[in-house]
Amino acid sequence: MSPLQPVRGARDILPENILTHRHVEETLCRVATCYGYSEIVTPVFEFTEVFARTLGDTSDVVTKEMYTFLDKGGDSLTLRPENTAGVARAFISGGMAQKLPLKLFYRGPMFRYERPQKGRQRQFHQVGVELLGVQGPAADVEVIALGAQYLEWLGVLDKATLELNTLGDAESRAAYRAKLVGYYQDHREKLSEDSLGRLERNPLRILDSKDEGDKAINAGAPLINESLNDASRRFFDQVQAGLDTVGVSYTLNSHMVRGLDYYCHTAFEFVTGALGAQGALLAGGRYDGLIKQLGGPSTPGTGWAAGVERLAMLDATAPAAPRPIAMVPAGNSSDVSRRVLTLTQALRGAGFRVDLGYSGNMGKRMKRANKINACAVVMIGEDELERRAATVRDMDSGEQTEVPLDSLQSHLARYR
RNA sequence: GUGGCUGUAGCUCAGUUGGUUAGAGCAUCGGCUUGUGGUGCCGAGGGUCGGGGGUUCAAAUCCCCUCAGCCACCCCA
Q1: What 3-state DSSP class applies to A219?
Q2: Do A236 and A92 sit in the same domain of this protein?
Q3: The nucleotide closest to A384 (CA, C1' atoms)
Q4: Nucleotide nearest to A128 (CA to C1')
Q5: Do the interacting molecules here have an ipTM over 0.90?
Q6: pLDDT by residue (tens digit) across A165-216?
Q7: Does residue A384 lie within 7 Å of nucleic acid chain B, judged by its CB?
Q8: Alpha helices in A78-169, H assignment, sequence order
Q9: Is residue A277 domain-resident?
């Protein structure tokens, strides 16, 4: 372990990459705002109990992926592996049950102790939305439409497909689970070792196994569709009808399930083939049981989370870095440098992006102006000072204009 | 957590069967150019060869351990 490298799976986001990262986050802010969602920020750590109770004792996240530690007061804390539990906790502690329906979005770092690979880090960033307090399928439709809109604004929607499934309500899910367990028990000698474990812990998970033998068995497995009660079936139909109405296309995938226990009804995932094995870009579903399970009032919820780094890897629309105006004093008269400094201060105060070098002759400063991709250079020497003017050079055309200092700001307005 | 592949300059990579002071391109910095950027020419700086140990007269090169990245599994954003 060298202290001179970041902790495994953690990364610096360097200045040349931050614009894309920020663009991915800010686009979510814009889209979510259009849908009437407000931002919420919860702590990056919670009492371990918050995650242990909501994620389920058998989930991988809880059993092996959490960053858990004792603080100096002896409390067990955990760096959040996802944000839904934290939002649910905030909902309860903040007494927000009076404000339903509640439409929230968030962004920030998450932590999972996993083996890193492409598109998977131990500290990574997610954006997400949560819609609390809406019973009906309109909520699921809105949230999925928001996700599709978001990917479209990022310019990555055409690289993703929306997969949709239902897990049914508690009754349907229990019935299905029983059927599945029966089926797999009959084939248990052919199941992979991993799937034998799943059979104990989370039999639904066998459905999306990548093992070839498992896949063959899954081909004959009972479908959730056959276990849905009327209410669950109607709910799923309405979600699909709603998506048709808003023009979001999807494919049904009866083998897509959820790793976290609190999901019910709708499960969905925008997946891409462009990121190797890490295909999930944006995924979520309905979690009606979560808040009650945490000790709050029974409150339905639906939402999703998306991986910022994964989206950034696909995003082609990130804006170019803004171009500054460079101030270039000529000669080394102290009158000139004082005047350039006050002008720089005034321009910056007026909202211009202005670069003022720290040293060097004119040639050096011009080179620097070029290197930082300045759109214009404001040159001032003793000559200009006498005439109370500045020479403005457009760095693309090379054209130079002498501008009276009084009208410098209005002349530079085109570069703002 | 399991399995496989890979680590040489800031970046992309050369480096012969182990053999002198480890090279190139790009980038950086300086000069040609002390009131004018990009192109050009000249020059310079920059390397614990991922780290540690071992074999050997001699290791970037062979062996072991370790760290990190990548790929797949597990799982997931």
Answers
A1: helix
A2: yes
A3: B35
A4: B77
A5: no
A6: 999 998 898 889 889 889 998 888 888 888 888 888 778 888 888 888 888 8
A7: yes
A8: 84-93, 137-154
A9: yes
Q: Is the CB of A2 under 7 A from strand B?
A: yes
Which residue type sits at A83? N
Nucleotides of B under 7 A from a protein CB: 1-3, 28-31, 33-38, 48, 50-51, 67-77
Q: Which chain A residues in 317-356 sit with Cβ < 7 A of strand B?
A: 330-331
Beta strands in A202-290 (DSSP E): 251-252, 264-271, 280-286
- Tell me the two tokens of residue A372: 């930082």
CB A306 within 8 A of CB A147: yes
| pLDDT digits 0-9 by tens, A19-71 | 889 999 999 999 999 999 999 999 999 999 999 888 766 667 666 788 998 99
Residue where a domain stops, chosen among A261, A287, A314: A314
Q: Judging by DSSP bridges, how do beta strands A400-404 and A280-286 pair with one another?
A: unpaired
Choosing from A290, A314, A338, the residue where a domain stops is: A314
Question: CA end-to-end span of chain A, whole Å?
Answer: 47
Q: Give the tokens for residue A120.
A: 């998977």
A307 touches strand B (CB under 7 A): yes
Please check whether residues A307 and A339 belong to one and the same domain.
Answer: no
Q: What is the 3-state secondary structure of A8-77?
A: CCCCCCCHHHHHHHHHHHHHHHHHHHHCCCEECCCCCEEEHHHHHHHHCCCCHHHHHCCEEEECCCCCEE
- Tokens 């059927």 locate to A179
Packed helices A170-186 and A193-201: angle between N→C axes, nearest 10 degrees: 140
Q: What are the φ and ψ backbone dihedral angles of A390, each rounded to 5 degrees?
A: -140, 150
